[in-house]
Structure formats: structure tokens, C-alpha cells
Amino acid sequence: MLCSVPNVSAQSHFAFNQIDRPTLPIWNYMIRGRVQSESFIHALYMFDEMRERGLRGDNLTFIFLGLSRKVFDEMGMKDLVSWNSLICGYSQCAFDAMRAENVKADAVTMVKVVLACRYLGQWNLRILWMTEMNVVSWNAMIAGDAKSGDLVAAKKLFDEMPTRDVISWTCMITGYAQANQ
């Protein structure tokens, strides 16, 4: 059993890893423990792992991640990993909070999500967040793949698109031109 003080020790982490399918309250407990033990980055990593396992955060999750920001602000040296973790955590929290309020994402939202995922190298997240695919979101993913040099992935998406427009073609042509192909 996890100890009553929300501090993530090696024992509590070991116990957590023994659970096949941790519930949201257990994830929240672990995230809170990471934050309170000033393991800000590990709290965000846990949040990422929780999302990868198909669970969305709730209000408590977001409160604990908000505490992470306080810890982040107090960190002496902030490196690329800590900044990327903060950006990723906030973008996921904001998107989940928006969906929890039943606000439907539009094309602009999806483009921003794709760009954030591309910037952070979190391409697997873009599919989780794509609740409604339209030509704008397809184009954003193609442009992201092309700009990062993955023309095979860009071409695959382009071929799978139900409808193409001028921007779709421009993304592909620009991608090939930038790769000297």
C-alpha cells in the first residue's frame, strides 16, 4: 500500500509499477507525490505516461501539474528537457481542459496542437488529439513531417488524405524541394 504522505519514494514507485492498470486516483497520487518531492520533470513524465495509457487527467491532475509550475519556477537551472516538459504538460492540460468543457477544437486548435507536437518531437500525441480530421489538420501534419525531413511519412499522409487542396500540394512540393528531391 502507498504511504499516506504523498512523497514518492522508491517503495511507492515500486508498488505503483506492480499495478497492471492504475486508476486515475492512483496516477494523481503519484503525480502529486512527484511534485511534492520536487521531482517536477518526473511528474510531467508520469502525466505523459498516464496519457499514453489512455487516461485523461481530471481537475486534481491539473492542480498538481499547476504545483509543478511553482516547482519549475523555483528550479535553479532550467534545461531543454525541463522547458519541453513544461510546454508539453501545459499544452496537454489546456487541450484536455478545453475538451472537458465540451469546447470543440477547430482547425486552428488542431494546427497549434500539431505544431506543438512537432516542436517537442511528440508525434504520437498528435493522433490522440485529432478528434476530427479535416483538410487543415491533414495539411498541418503533412507540413510538419515534410519540414522535419520525413518525406515518407508526409507522402503516406498525403496519399491517405480524403481531399487535397492547393496547400496539400504546396506542402509536398516544398518538402521535396527542401530535401533536394
UniProtKB/TrEMBL annotation:
Keywords: Repeat. The keyword Repeat applies. PPR repeats lie at residues 134-168. Pfam families: PPR. Coiled coil: none annotated. This is Pentatricopeptide repeat-containing protein. It comes from Penstemon davidsonii.
